[in-house]
Amino acid sequence: MNLFQSINFKSHSGLDLSWKIEMDALEDQDWFTIKRMILEITPPFKEAVGIPRGGVKLGDLLNEHATGKEEDPICIVDDVLTTGESMEYFLEQYQRNRRPFTAIGWVVFARTQCPPWVTALFQMPT
Q1: Given the DSSP bridges, would you call strands 103-110 and 20-21 parallel, antiparallel or unpaired?
Q2: pLDDT along the chain (126 residues), means of 10
Q3: What is the C-alpha to C-alpha distance for residues 98 and 75, in angstroms, rounded to an integer?
Q4: Strand partners, 81
């Protein structure tokens, strides 16, 4: 299985795209290294939460390094950002019925510009 695939498909956000980043091609060692890359540059965070389905594995790995401190932000992660709508929607839903908190976001790949609170390890030019 290739990480980058030249295929026509419909994204989660409903866009027709001509190439895909197939994150299932990554192995556990790849995810471990991605976690280390993020930990080298991210500020401390209270907990890490992965957006289902693509961000769950990364969220679990990062959560091993969470501080648990109320004053630290919550880290929301996903694998691939296409429009940013999933990150924004997840943040909005996660904030419901919770005490106010600050959020930081991480994605492995971003196909477009990220929302201001989200950082991509690998960013397509926009």
Answers
A1: unpaired
A2: 95 91 97 98 97 95 97 97 94 87 96 97 93
A3: 15
A4: 110
CB distance 1 to 13 below 8 Å: no
Buried b vs exposed e over 64-76: b needs ≥16 C-beta within 10 Å? eebeeeeebbbbb
Who contacts 63 (Cβ-Cβ below 8 Å, separation ≥6)? Answer: 47, 48, 49
E strands within 24-68? 47-50
For the chain, percent helix, then strand, then coil, each to nearest 5? Answer: 30, 25, 45
Nearest Cα residue to 90 out of 4, 12, 11 = 12
